[in-house]
Amino acid sequence: MRVFSSILLVFLITTLGIGKSFTKIDSEKLKHLIEGGKETNSDAVIVIQDGKTLVEEYYGKEKGAVYIASAGKSLTALAIGKLIDQGKIKSLDQPVSDFYPEWIQGNKKQITIRMLLNHTSGIQNIPNASVEIERKYPPVNVIKLAIAAELTNLPGTNWSYNNKAVGLLAGIIEKASGKRMDIYFADEFYSPMNIADYNWIWDEDGNPLAYGGHMIEPMGLAKFGILMLNGGQFEGKQIVSRAFVEEAVKPGQKFFTASGLLWWRYTKTSKSVIDTERFIKMRQDKINAEFLQKIAPLENKVFESDNEYFAALEKALGKEWRKTLRETLKNTNYGLRKRIFSDETIGYYASGFRGNYLLVMPEDKLIAVRVVRNSKNYNWNTDGFGDFLQLAAELTGKSLSPPPVR
């Protein structure tokens, strides 16, 4: 009954014309979104527009803190912004070596805090955290691992999604604030935002995982959407500066412009290409020759949409193409395709493993959250709710492409 009572609430709001000059939610699309949450074993789906909670659905499950995986990276970025506001970090371009003198020599001295946030630090990297960092529980000391890592690329010359680099931010936050990251975060964000139900995952030496250690109640995650939508304000309190919020959702670098500073940018359109440079790189890395032969017809072909790209991969590699791709490139620090993004942005979002999402659509004053626990009932084949972001973004009647993914 709660699903349909939520829909009734939305219907009354839209029918009575309550709201301002933005496109109101389509109740049928919202019903479809909520039903999708149920079908994918979601623990919560929340939709807020113009400060009004239109849906807060828990599907009969507990409301407690949920591990949001890499969606927590986006929250970590806000802690850096707060420290800059407080003058405890000089700027985004302050060298990491100011905090870790181990990097004062060689090319590591070029690495800045911005490079940790925009994935261009160049430190050796395996994007899948389970391969290197989380091969045991508790995870290895990610700060020591990052400090000791070699450089794969010169800093600032390549984009590569890097859990290890982001993990080092916990150490920087502690050194700058004088408080362990989880304590600083509770004092500066959770307490003033009235978020009471939260927890953390720590590594073997008690460092909170900056790249994905946040556990937070679903409505608490939605509150961060409100904060972002309001330029860093929450209930009249300036939690983090508008300047940092705006900087975080700009293109963070020139190589992969859908990536901001640990926030993802939902661009209006995107294209995909597997170019000659990527084929050369894969041959240099001795990627399976049979795999390369199968995808050879796709070289330099531009795909206008994700669906077109995915269909081409299925034709080349078979129905299990996702698994084949994941296994073939698992030890590299790059994906198969390169992305070409439009300049126009319709929103931004935080995204985590298993399908944990926070979407913010400024023009429509819309916030949407979906969280899911890694329970015994979670089906890895069906419960990722991969189209949540697109369905949520289309609630106001837009027809959009899927959001950019790495």
Short synopsis of the structure:
The chain is of the alpha+beta class and 406 residues long. The chain is built from 15 helices and 14 strands.
Structure description:
The chain has 406 residues and is an alpha+beta fold. The protein has three domains: 93 residues, no CATH class; 147 residues, DD-peptidase/beta-lactamase superfamily (Beta-lactamase, 3-Layer(aba) Sandwich); 72 residues, no CATH class. Helices cover 36% and strands 14% of the residues. It is built from 15 helices and 14 strands. The strands form four sheets. The chain has a six-stranded antiparallel beta sheet with strand order 2-1-14-13-12-8. α1 runs antiparallel to α2, α3 packs parallel to α7 and α6 packs across α7.
The CATH topology of the largest domain turns out to be Beta-lactamase
CATH architecture of the largest domain: 3-Layer(aba) Sandwich
Rg (C-alpha, Å): 21 Å
Name of the level-1 CATH class of the largest domain: Alpha Beta
Shape: globular
Distance between the termini: 38 Å
- Structural class assignment: alpha+beta
CATH superfamily of the largest domain: DD-peptidase/beta-lactamase superfamily
What is the element string, with H for helices and E for strands? HHEEEHHHHHHEEHEEHEEHHEHHEEEEH
Mean pLDDT: 91
Unreliable stretches, pLDDT < 50, 5 or more residues?
A: 1-5, 7-19
The largest beta-sheet arranges its strands as: 2-1-14-13-12-8
> What's the number of domains?
3
DSSP strand content: 5-15%
Number of strands: 14
Please estimate the helix content: 25-40%
Q: Helical element count?
A: 15
* Main sheet record: 6 strands, antiparallel
